[in-house]
Amino acid sequence: xxDNRPPSTLWxxxxxxxxxxxQIEGIEIYAPAPxxxxxxxxxxxxxxxxxxISYSATQRQLACxxxxxxxxxxxxAVGRAADEFEFTLETIAExxxxxxxxxxxxxxxxxxAVVTVAPDALTDxxxxxxxxxxxxxxxxxxxxxxxxRPTTLIPFVVDKEQCQAKVREWLGRGWMHPPELRSVRALRxxxxxxxxxxxxDTHVSADWKAxxxxxxxERYYKDGEWKxxxxxxxxxxSGRVHVPxxxxxxxxxxxxxxxxxxxxxxxxxHGLVEYDPGYLAGWQAKTHDVQLPxxxxxxxxxxxxxxKSACHSDTGSRHVRNMRMAxxxxxxxxxxxxxxxxxxxxxxxxxxxQVMVNxxxxxxxxxxxxxxLRVWLAIAGLLMPGACLGLVGxxxxxxxxxxxxxxxxxxxxxxxxxxxxxxxxxxxxxxxEI
Length: 434
Prior knowledge:
Blueprint: H1 7-10, E1 17-20, E2 29-32, E3 54-56, E4 61-63, E5 70-71, E6 85-86, H2 89-94, E7 104-108, E8 114-117, E9 134-138, E10 152-153, H3 160-171, H4 186-189, E11 191-222, E12 225-251, H5 258-264, E13 273-274, E14 284-286, H6 292-314, E15 320-348, E16 351-358, E17 364-366, H7 372-398, H8 404-433
Parallel strand pairs: 10-15, 11-14
Antiparallel strand pairs: 1-2, 3-4, 4-5, 6-15, 7-8, 7-9, 8-14, 10-13, 11-12, 11-15, 15-16, 16-17
Helix pairs in contact: 7-8
C-alpha cells in the first residue's frame, strides 16, 4: 500500500515526546519534550503575620507595616548594561508579558488613564487629573497577559515624607504665587507611580552639505580715513559625522506633560535593576499607551535634532546657512523600563494643576497658580517710573522749560519697564500652562 502520509500520522508518538531534528531524510526522531515552566503569579504577604507587605523606599526592600519584618528582593543591579533588544518582530513577540503578580486596574472615567495597583489597595482618586470617578477591575497577571513586561526599573529612593517636604517647599517658593498653596491637597494626594519609558540605542551616520561662512577683516577708505570691517565669505562645504546614541528615553504614556517630565529629568540609569514584581508591591504602575513604533518615531525626530547640531559643529564655523542633512540609523535597539515618580493633581480656584517629583532624585516640577493681582501690581510698578518721568518732562517742555532730558530718561525707563513686564508676564503664564 502506497501511503505518502508523514510517519507521525501513521504512528503517533507516545505522550510527552516531541520531534527533534533528523539528519536522515524521511526518518523522524522523537525525544522527551522539555517541561514547560509555568510562570507563577506572585502575591506579597508577610511571612511572619500574613499581612500585606510593600516595597519601602527608605529601606530598599519589602517591609511589613504591621509587624516590621523585612524581606530582601532578589534582583540584580544591572545599570545601563541591562539587556537590549533589536528591532525585529521576533524579539518583540518573544518579550515577556504580564506584571508577574496579582494586580488590579484603576480606570479613570474622566481622563481615561489606567494604572495597576495591589489587589487590596484602596484609592478613589486619579493622580493624573484629580477626578474621583475611578473604576476598579481585574488586571491581567503574569500568565497569558498581552501586557508587555518591563525588562528593568529604577526603584523608588525618595519616600513619601521626603517628597511631601520637597513639594511643600516648592509650592511656597516665588512671590507671584498665592501663599495658601502650602496647604493644598497636593501634599496629601501624592501617589508613587512607576511610569513606562522606552529607551533606544542606535548609531547615526549623517552626510551634511551647507554654505559655511569664513570671517575676514578688510580695510576700506571712507570720509578721509582708513577703517576696518568684518566680511563673511560663503563657500559650499560637505562632511560626514558619526553619532552614537545611548539610552535615549521617550515616555511611554501621553497622560502626563512631557514639559513637566523634562524638568524632573534626568534619571540616573545606572540605578536600573532587573524587573521584579516585588518593587511594585504597594505602588501604582502605569501601563504604556505609547506603542514601540510610535515611540521610535518620536525618538528619531529628537535624535535628528541632536545630529543636526553635531553637523553644525562639524563645519567649524558659527556662520552656517542652507544646511542639508541625510541621516542613516543603524543597529537600533530598545528597552522597556519603569521609572519612579510621585504625581498629584490638585484643584485650586476652580482649575486643576499637576505636580511631579522624581522618585530617584527628588527633583520637583509642575504647574502653580498665579496670584495675578500681585503680578499686575508688579508690572505697574515697573512701568510707573518711566511713565511719570516722561509725563513730567512733557509738561516741562510744554511750559517752556527744559523737558527734553526728562523725556529721554522717561522713555529709557519705560522701555526697560516694558521688557521686565513682558518677562514677568511670560513667566507667570508658563507657570500655569505647562
